[in-house]
Design goal:
Elements: H1 10-36, H2 45-64, H3 71-96
Helix pairs in contact: 1-2, 1-3
Protein name: Iron uptake protein
Transmembrane segments: 16-37, 49-69, 75-96
Keywords: Membrane, Transmembrane, Transmembrane helix
């Protein structure tokens, strides 16, 4: 079965990747920062890694948002991923403290 690609519904997909993707990226950065024991020094290697990780994840989300079938599916999947990632962040933050 082959499917044809179209640009139909690109605005909801891009807005989902831009808004929910940004929140998801910050959550993933927070989880990795908590688990790696990153400090708050901006010039440290761990802080630089987290900064570039955020860029790569967000660009990957923006580039792959067109793989969703619809804008609604993009919003639902990214919102679900946000709930999961931010839940893990809260647990990781509690474990660190």
């Amino acid at each position: 079965m082959t499917t044809t690609l179209s640009s139909r519904g690109w605005l909801p997909k891009v807005s989902a990747a831009s808004l929910a993707g940004a929140v998801l990226t910050m959550g993933l950065t927070g989880v990795v920062g908590c688990l790696s024991g990153s400090d708050s020094m901006p010039r440290s290697m761990s802080a630089q890694f987290l900064m570039w990780l955020a860029v790569l994840v967000w660009v990957a989300l923006l580039g792959s948002c067109f793989l969703f079938r619809s804008g609604r599916q993009a919003w639902l999947v990214l919102t679900g991923a946000n709930i999961l990632v931010w839940g893990v962040y809260v647990l990781a933050r509690a474990a660190v403290l």
